[in-house]
Amino acid sequence: MSVPKLHIGGLHKSFGTGARRTEVLRDIDLDLADNEFVSLVGTSGCGKSTLLSIVAGLHRFDTGELAIDGAPILQPGLDRGVVFQSYTLLPWLTAQQNIEFALKAAGYDRAACREIAREHLELVKLSHSADRYPSELSGGMKQRVAIARALSYRPKMLLMDEPFGALDALTRHQMQELLTQIWEEHRLTVLFVTHDVEEAVYLSDRIVVMGIGPGRIIQSFDVGIPRPRREEVMETPAFMDLQRRVHKAIREAAKATVA
């Protein structure tokens, strides 16, 4: 049996100590295959973002196993590209310079930084804005730069935490289509956190529903909708049925917490 791209086994996470200790994740078991796109969904506070931050190496966990390609994850690394809801671009650098900055940190020489940055701006359809500063870019354009930067140093995985949550509906749909096209062309493993079930169904190979109190995995759904996907697929019976089933799982998990 092949080693999963990402392995999470029996993972527990708490914040605080003593009487103020709060368990936020309990017994998380989740494997992602190579090139698989998996979305985490669930009510606010169920630990989706905490789990993604642990995979990114930004938070430690209490007990359990965490590995990428069989190697333990102990800290942030270039094998994982991370995109947050906030754009995290350096305001004094242009779009191209923001990408070059990340590449320099990854050890690329100046010529390679320029070439790779241009390639990835083209990938996200921003070649025309290479010399513009973040303040001159729309929210969707800033997020495209952030995605280009995260992909530029060839990570093994892309970790995305509500990357389109701050965008208007039209721009959000455009970004979903762009991400789908990039994934279909370049095929990398993605762990994606979202509150939007429609977005999860549209983008994912598999959807993992998390419950709260403490955060844990409740149910997993294989999407099974053929690729390539375009916006029209959202109107199909298979798409709408899966969306209803995922919503139901989230509601039932929330009811169980209240009970």
Folded structure, characterized:
There is one protein chain. With 259 residues, this protein is of the alpha/beta class. It has a domain at 86-154. It contains seven helices and ten strands. Strands 6-7-8-3-9-10 form a six-stranded mixed sheet, sandwiched between helices. Strands 2-1-4-5 form a four-stranded antiparallel sheet, with helices on one face. A hairpin with a 2-residue loop joins β4 and β5. α2 (95-105) crosses α3, α3 crosses α4 (139-152) and α6 crosses α7. The radius of gyration is 19 Å and the shape is globular. The N and C termini lie far apart (40 Å). It holds the Pfam family ABC_tran.
Briefly say what this structure is.
The chain is 37% helix and 24% strand. It is built from 7 helices and 10 strands.
Strand content: 15-25%
- Taken from the alpha-carbon principal axes, the silhouette is globular
Biggest β-sheet strands, sense, barrel: 6 strands, mixed
Gyration radius, in Å: 19 Å
Bin the helical content. Answer: 25-40%
Low-confidence stretches: none
User: What string gives the helices and strands in order?
Assistant: EEEHEEEHHHEHEHEEH
Secondary-structure class: alpha/beta
Average of pLDDT? 93
Distance between the termini: 40 Å
Q: What's the arrangement of strands in the largest beta sheet?
A: 6-7-8-3-9-10
Counting DSSP E segments of at least 2 residues, the number of strands comes to 10
* Helical stretch tally: 7
